[in-house]
Amino acid sequence: MYKYFHQCGSYASLILAVGTAGVATHADAEFIDDSKANLQLRNYFFNRDYTGDQGPVVNGRRQGEASHWSQNFILAVQSGYTEGVVGFGVDMLGMLSIKLDGDQWSKNTQMTPIHDDGYPPDNWGRTAVAGKMRISKTDLKVGEWAPTLPVLRADDGRSLPQTFQGALIDSKDIENLELYAGQFRQNSTRDDASLEDFSFLGRGTSDRFNLAGAEYTFNEKQTMVGAWYAELENIYDQRYYQLLHTQKFGEDWVASANLGYFLGSDNGDQLDGHLSNETYSGMFSLKHGPSTFYLGLVKVRGNSKWMRVNGASGGTLANDGYAYTADNIDERSWQVRHDFDFASLGIPGLTLMNRYIQGRDIDVSPADRNGKEWIRESELAYAVQTGTFKDLVLKWRSATVRRDYQGGQDFDEHRLIVVYPLTLL
Fold first, then answer.
1. DSSP class of residue 8?
2. What DSSP element (H or E) covers 406?
3. Can you give the pTM of this predicted structure?
4. H or E element: which one contains 184?
5. Tens of pLDDT, residues 321-359
6. Fewer CB within 10 Å, N side or C side of the chain?
7. DSSP states of 111-172 as a string?
8. pLDDT tens, 234-265?
9. Is residue 341 classed as helix, strand or coil in its secondary structure?
């Protein structure tokens, strides 16, 4: 039935129409009673300062900095389900980004589309609609939304979130076991208002990303094992196995381990050529009182970097940061991180994160297989606790990236983000 999934928009409209009919015939339907609507106001300033005259070339000259400032509105509406054995509903994302400051140097911020003249638009956005259907504890969703799956994770790190168009079945009918199956046909990256086919290395495109997965939770919900399969048709296929465990010690100690193994190869017509990839990922943490300490380890092997579709988040890997993901060919990386919650010092809502990531043995070219890099990142965040602006969040993110391999672009980066969520329904 995959060949029919290109009609996702039509299917979403059909499900919406049927769901609406259900509401009309059931005045007290949970379609309305269980609906939710939230508006997120997101003000986002981004500045990346390239050092050592290493910035990308824009209009014939080196880009010294990449900078953009936007005010963004993200409206999320989720209906309930109509009554009956089969329930219908609809979800919607309405997204609008307004430029507050930006010019030709907005390019490479990934905050906004760039016109053919090299300048960003004054405003841009899109609407994503998905129909949904529920039978018992099995959900079918068809349309466009922002899924966060281990093998396909929408990126929400700039002005507006990335979205994917397709269909996904999510079943929880078996106790402690969650099953997934689906196909996605196109995506809209975080700096694009249009839907486009998928790509990996950029030599070819595909309009079919197929996936299946299973996650089993046990040991009083302290342990989860997962197995996933993903196929970017005619480009790559990928298998992912995960073990996640959390363990409490005494009154105030919590340890956790998140282990993952990826195995990938080329697929079908091999539009990106012959591919092979193994990626090992491990994130270990220890929480005591207000402090949480992390150790991240990642090893990439084969002739390909870690496999993910264009624009998707690298958050499944341990050593993924705000500014960069350590996922290059043959890269071996480690991370140390510390989080601190100032509530213990009488300042609830204030948190601080610092991390350092170092990568080495990067296969840059046949003549250079010893590339190195390091990334330092910090985030200071405060969430207002009371009053008119309760839940307003202010974030300052700072990053430094340094590389010694050919073509590497060193930069220092700062981001100021203000998020104010409004509950409408």
1. H
2. none
3. 0.91
4. strand 177-188
5. 999 999 999 999 999 999 999 999 999 999 999 999 999
6. N
7. SS---TTS---SEEEEEEEEEEEEETTEEEEEEEE--EETTEE---SSSS--EEEEEEEEE-
8. 999 999 999 999 999 988 999 999 999 999 99
9. strand
